[in-house]
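Thread: "does anyone have the structure for this chain?"

Original post by V.I.:
We have the sequence but no experimental structure in hand. Need at least a predicted one for the grant figures.
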Amino acid sequence: MSSALAAYNPSICLLVDVDAAVLTMSNVTYHVSSLSGGIKISPYEEPKEDFVYVATLGGTIDKDYPKLTSGYAFEFGDQSAAERILKAHPNLGISYKIKSICKKDSLEITSDDRRDLFSYIIERIKYRPMSSELLRIVVTHGTDTMIETAMYIKNSLSEEDRARVVIAFTGATKPERFVDSDASFNVGCAVAATSCCKPGSVVICMNGNVIPAKQCARVESTGRFVKRVIY
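Reply from O.Q.:
Generated one for you, tokens below.
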């Protein structure tokens, strides 16, 4: 293709022979592709970033220092941990939108809260055209009942709806505000999981593992999430 480009503009003849390339002329970037009858030069557009929806339900990950000087217990702040984590990494290859479903300890999560989460997910699924890319959703949640909520969502979605989405649940064993918290690691793991898990997956992302919700269990003595064997 370089010879054809040289005929088009001798100043860019240093391009190697490839089927497609990106070049800049006069500070304008173009996409160049070879065709059977010659070459095609068109303005270059950056690929659209993948989009991730993040639903937050409180839990340890979102606990913040008390605002009152007389306060002694952690409380939920105005900004979620997921938002702070994602904002701290401006070079992410994704765009995202965060929705607060509730701000509760996971032992206080109710059936209504789970229905609200399900409604939010269904709205995202129905809003997107059938031909669009796979929907990616991350849910931050307290660790005590995370598996229960994940299974509720998995069982509530129809096979057709579930096939259009990947949902990753995550949380933290220490508040994100703590220097030694696992929050940032877990959120990153969950975001990545939504890009590589197969359609229809509902997974738990904790302790460095991505585990299907149906196969996930928590070890009482250590608090770790593990994959259990189903016979």
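V.I.: this helps a lot. Confidence is low (pLDDT under 50) at residues 1-20.
O.Q.: and DSSP finds six helices and 13 strands in the chain.
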